[in-house]
Amino acid sequence: MADDTTDDRAGARRGGVARTAAAGHGEPEPTTGAHAARRASENLNLRVDLPPAPVREVPEDEVAVAIDDVSVNPTALVDGDSTTRSVEVITPALSHGAYRSAARRDPSPYGALLAADASRARRERLRDEAAAQVAVVESPGEAPVPAEVPETPESLTPDRLIDLNRTTRPAPQGGLNRLVYEASLHLVNLGDSAKVRAHKALSQRIQKRFEGGARFVPVLTRKGGVGKTTITALLGMALADARDDRIIAIDANPDRGTLAERVDRQTRETVRDVVVKASSIGGYTDFSKFVSRDETRLDILASDTDPTLSEAFDDNDYNVVAGLAARYYSLVLTDCGTGIVHSVMRATLQRADSIVIVSGGSVDEARLASETLTWLEANGFGELVRNAVVAINLATQGTHLVKVDEIEAHFQSRVREIVRIPYDPQLAAGSVVNWKELRPVTQHAARELAALVVEGLPAERGH
């Protein structure tokens, strides 16, 4: 058996050598199963049939809806019996069938997602267009609301309408600009200086217009000797000098007042004469016989001066005088007497649109002025306190010894505005006040007080 195995191996070696030699001589290699499989793998083409992409059925609530643009005529709706109109809502033919047909034509599985995004974008666009084209129809019973409040004739001011240029610009007032204007033979017009513009702006604040009757402004304090009468005269002169309507200051002191002594008296008539002759006063000409007028056109009605009178000026008398003054004047200032508990005070405060509290520069004067505010709040005049203006008279004794800034800081927590009235030799004399001879700083302080008072008054009665 060993010999047979040896012979077989030798034969196999001889056969392998013979096949190699045959291949080297170009003879065809014998065909076997392994050789056939190798050649088949080199030329193999595979084809796999996959099922078609699923078609997504669109729910009814996701189908794009288009609203046809239907114009609505509001007048036609008002004339008809119905106030509504039906608008037909249709489904576009493209929304359902085209969606599925497009999905079937697109062999990619992403086609359905892209189509869904496009449909959603189209729905949003149609919704926005429909919202933008909604017509608002007013019902027959509703009145049309104007878009804005109509302008009044007073809004047509020269500053608004006139186009300023070299020929229409007004000539500058005073200072270097006026000198240049005159030296250039009116060819160079630089306009007003900053100082002049500030003065005009303050005048415009004082010139605020009122409608619906006179405005009443009492000037009061609990302590005498703080310059209440002087502040009343200064305030009235500043108002009358800047405004073109009538201003009056009434001395309502139940005792003898001194307001009329601040101007050159042109009559000896007093508030008592107005009360006695009230029935005979039929117009401003009749009333003007009882007042004195200064250079600024401020009218002053003096208080009682007859020491033999048995009855003092009371609240009924004040109401008679105030009622007549309201017919002929736009602003009525009242110089109240010393103290706040006399009978005239309540009648004065009941008519007041705003008040001025006068304080001196000393400790006790500032404290008494603050107590005046407390009394007013406790007696139901808190609104007047919040709208009040405090005038600090720096001409009183002791002002240089106290911290005026601290006094001002105290009143800032209680009232609307505070103004300092500086010392002026003409005011310290206690005699006739000439407006043009006052120091510029005093005039400016009085004008600032006037502007603040006017700004706190209602432009229309009832507002």
Which keywords apply here?
elongated; two-stranded antiparallel ribbon; 8-stranded mixed β-sheet; 18 helices; 42% helix; 463 residues; 10 strands
- Rg over alpha carbons: 50 Å
**Stretches where pLDDT falls below 50 for ≥5 residues?**
9-28, 93-106
Number of alpha- plus pi-helical segments: 18
Major sheet attributes: 8 strands, mixed
Percent strand: 5-15%
Q: How many β-strands, per DSSP?
A: 10
How does the helix and strand content classify structurally? alpha/beta
Average pLDDT, to the nearest integer? 78
Q: Name the helicity range.
A: 40-55%
Describe the structure.
- This protein is an alpha/beta fold and 463 residues long.
- Helices cover 42% and strands 9% of the residues.
- The strands form two sheets. It has an eight-stranded mixed beta sheet with strand order 5-6-4-7-3-8-9-10, sandwiched between helices.
- Strand 9, helix 16 (404-412) and strand 10 form a beta-alpha-beta unit.
- Helix 8 (194-206) crosses helix 18 (440-455), helix 9 crosses helix 18 and helix 12 (315-328) runs parallel beside helix 13 (343-351).
- It is elongated and about 150 Å long.
